[in-house]
Specification:
Layout (H helix, E strand, L loop, with lengths): L2 H7 L4 E5 L3 H11 L4 E5 L2 H10 L3 E7 L7 H9 L4 H4 L3 E6 L4 H9 L4 E5 L3 H28 L10 H18 L3 E9 L1 H8 L3 H16 L5 E4 L4 E7 L3 H7 L7 H4 L11 E8 L8 H10 L5 E2 L15 H9 L10 H17 L1
Parallel strand pairs: 1-2, 1-3, 3-4, 4-5
Antiparallel strand pairs: 6-8, 6-9, 7-8, 9-10
Helix pairs in contact: 3-4, 9-10
């Protein structure tokens, strides 16, 4: 692909220019309008509205002295925002030649990124715009890299290192608030061999589906991580061992939902759960606790024997079945219909009597 084609498909950087002077706004449009997607505002209040509505704004140029709210006021609102994209937005203050050095020092302390003095030259304004657009791109790439560092790329779930950090945080919170904390480990025995036999691209799609299915089955307060080639760990705050056992049904989708049924064959993957209550008055090293739970050694309590079985044998509860229908997953219920009908039969008979 040549450079011209790339330029045509890449969206132009969006810049917001704020000045109460119509002449200054016209100058900015003439200088920057051909290279950038330029938005203009005549007040700090209008600029703040645009910043909240438009997530594509990458750089802000704002006059310092304006009627109503000043450039300082706008800068304070931006740096005080809970939104990362605003708190880190490059803000270039447009100052007059009469502005004192003390005012510039104050602006830097309050979070200004840069300054430009008016009347500005076209080359100077263009250079400032290019520099801060590029720096914004670099910061966004860094945030993506930091985010991906916590992820297992195959499933999209948190990885083992991130799991350990979250366990440390959860232990600290549970200790302060005197709440139970439990880890539950799911092992899909035979998964690695299965995916190796089937090869790509099926293996990649299957792992993505596993991640999506497990992440979609947890409560809002829970988190699931991929902690081994065939292992997944659920972090269950404010949950004891009995509560974790009752949650196993919703964490055990069938093979079809996990995308593990290929080429019309029945594939041998066995699900085994291990429930691990965390003793908050004992050793709390996250890495050691995770190793113990995944290996089944001291500190982990095995799930009931009848819970280590193929996912296809599990029938969802009536409540879970209704939720699956609401999510558009009716197809997953077809081979469970006889069992569900049997559970509903007493209620149907009672309704018929009335």
């Amino acid at each position: 692909m040549n450079a011209v084609t790339q330029e045509n498909i890449r969206p132009r950087a969006r810049i917001l220019f704020v000045d109460d002077s119509r002449m200054m706004r016209m100058c900015a449009r003439k200088i920057l309008g051909n290279s950038y997607d330029l938005l203009l505002a005549d007040s700090a209040e209008e600029a703040w509205r645009l910043l909240q509505q438009d997530e594509r704004i990458q750089v802000l140029f704002t006059d310092l002295q304006m009627p109503g709210q000043s450039g300082f006021d706008l800068l304070d609102r931006i740096r005080g925002s809970d939104a990362t994209r605003l708190a880190e937005l490059p803000v270039v203050l447009i100052t007059g030649a009469e502005d004192r050095e003390e005012m510039r020092s104050l602006a830097l302390e309050r979070g200004a990124t840069d300054f430009i003095t008016k009347p500005f030259q076209a080359a100077e304004l263009t250079a400032r715009a290019r520099a801060h657009v590029e720096s914004g791109h670099s910061r966004r790439k860094l945030r993506v890299l930091e985010r991906d560092h916590h992820l297992d790329r195959a499933t999209g779930l948190g990885n083992r290192g991130y799991c350990e950090r979250r366990i440390d945080q959860a232990i600290s919170f549970a200790s302060r608030h005197d709440q139970p904390l439990t880890l539950m480990h799911l092992r899909l025995e035979g998964l690695a061999q299965l995916l190796g036999d089937l090869g790509e691209p099926y293996a990649g799609r299957a792992l993505q589906r596993i991640g999506q299915t497990l992440a979609g089955s947890i409560r809002k307060e829970d988190t699931v991580f991929r902690t081994g080639e065939e292992s997944f760990t659920f972090l269950l705050p404010a949950t004891d061992r009995r509560g974790a056992v009752t949650l196993q049904e919703r964490f055990l989708p069938d093979l079809d939902a996990l995308g593990l049924s290929g080429n019309g064959h029945s594939l041998e993957v066995t699900c085994r759960f291990q429930v691990q209550p965390i003793a908050l008055d004992g050793p709390t090293d996250a890495a050691s606790l995770l190793n113990e739970g995944l290996s089944g050694n001291a500190g982990a309590e095995a799930a009931e024997p009848d819970q280590a079985r193929s996912p296809k044998t599990q029938t969802p509860s009536i409540e879970d079945a209704l939720q699956m229908i609401e999510r558009g997953e009716s197809e997953r219920l077809r081979h469970h219909l006889p069992q569900l009908r049997e559970r509903l039969q007493p209620l149907l008979e009672l309704l018929h009597e009335r």
